[in-house]
Design a protein that fits this description.
With about 250 residues, the protein is an alpha/beta fold. The protein has a single domain, classed as EAL domain (TIM Barrel, Alpha-Beta Barrel). It has 10 helices and 10 strands. Strands 1, 2, 3, 4, 5, 6, 7, 8, 9 and 10 form a 10-stranded mixed beta sheet that branches. Helix 3 packs parallel to helix 5. It starts with a helix and ends with a helix. It binds guanosine-5'-monophosphate (2 copies), sodium ion and manganese (II) ion. One guanosine-5'-monophosphate (G) binds next to strand 2, helix 2 and helix 3.
């Protein structure tokens, strides 16, 4: 309860931050990024999102938090574009946020308010979104796709949903969960699963991002099996947007 109250206060006081973790292509060139929320507390301690996001989900605060995240994502896309670094950015959308009756209207409004190009925004949703009200979810996804946004399935392979949704949904991308990447290439089962996910995505025409790439051996295995995009500590940790702009400015 204290955490919930502190989080609401931090949001109101403008103390939350959005960091961005670059995503790179097979040659290691940055091609996009994922926005990740950060809550640095006044006392110097930082509360990790795997602690505060579930609290926000429980309390409903995720709706306000998610609206803020979406606005931040639009601002970040515009700032990158202004720096000559136009690239798509992904933002996590929680199931509760997505199921708000006015979610599509909210997205339309934030695009109109900010002038951010929808084609540079990717919404990351999890398989948990697909457990119920599948038709409603798909309908919304089509409405948002019509606005120009794209969808990514986050933590792919860890949900309990069937794969039937893959043939019904307007998807752009799968993100292979880092638990599979972690045990690749040394563990034969993980290797087989990653290879199968890459092949399946290829046949479905979906882009794949491998999450949590930490070692050269993992990157080599993934690129050898046609993984288009890699994200992880091997390349960069999540960082403030200014740091990314400085980094990319030096590279290009
Ligand atoms: O940033 P990582 O370091 O610790 O994130 C942990 C978890 O928090 C991940 O599951 C991630 O998807 C989630 N998360 C991070 N930022 C956001 C956000 O802006 N919105 C939502 N809904 N989840 C987020
Ligand atoms: O659930 P989601 O995929 O949105 O969360 C991304 C999470 O993964 C964030 O917490 C981010 O900080 C973390 N992360 C990103 N790259 C790496 C990595 O290479 N290794 C590990 N262990 N975590 C990572
Ligand atoms: Na994510
Ligand atoms: Mn993920």
């Amino acid at each position: 309860l204290t955490l919930e109250r502190d989080l609401a206060a931090a949001l109101a006081a403008g103390q939350l931050q959005m960091h961005v973790q670059p995503q790179v292509d097979r040659a290691g060139r940055p091609v996009g990024g994922e926005l990740l929320m950060r809550w640095p507390r006044a006392d110097g301690a930082s509360v990790p999102p795997h602690v505060f996001i579930p609290v926000a989900e429980e309390s409903g605060l995720i709706v306000a938090l998610g609206a803020w995240a979406l606005r931040q994502a639009c601002a970040a896309v515009l700032r990158l574009q202004a720096a000559g670094l136009a690239m798509p950015l992904s933002v996590n959308v929680s199931p509760t946020q997505f199921r708000q009756p006015d979610f599509v209207a909210q997205v339309r409004q934030v695009l109109a308010d900010t002038g951010a190009p929808a084609r540079l925004l990717v919404l990351e949703v999890t398989e948990g979104l697909l457990i119920d009200k599948m038709d409603d979810t798909i309908g919304r996804m089509h409405q948002l796709t019509a606005l120009g946004l794209r969808f990514s399935i986050d933590d792919f392979g860890t949900g309990y949903s069937s794969m039937a949704y893959l043939k019904k949904m307007p998807l752009y991308e799968l993100k292979i969960d880092r638990s599979f990447i972690q045990d690749t290439p040394h563990d034969a089962n993980s290797r087989a699963l990653v290879q199968s996910m890459l092949a399946m995505a290829g046949h479905l025409g979906l882009r794949v991002v491998a999450e949590g790439v930490e070692t050269r051996a993992q990157a080599d295995f993934l690129t050898a099996h046609d993984c288009a995009c890699l994200q992880g500590y091997l390349y960069a940790r999540p960082m403030p947007l200014d740091a990314l702009i400085a980094l990319l400015g030096r590279v290009s």
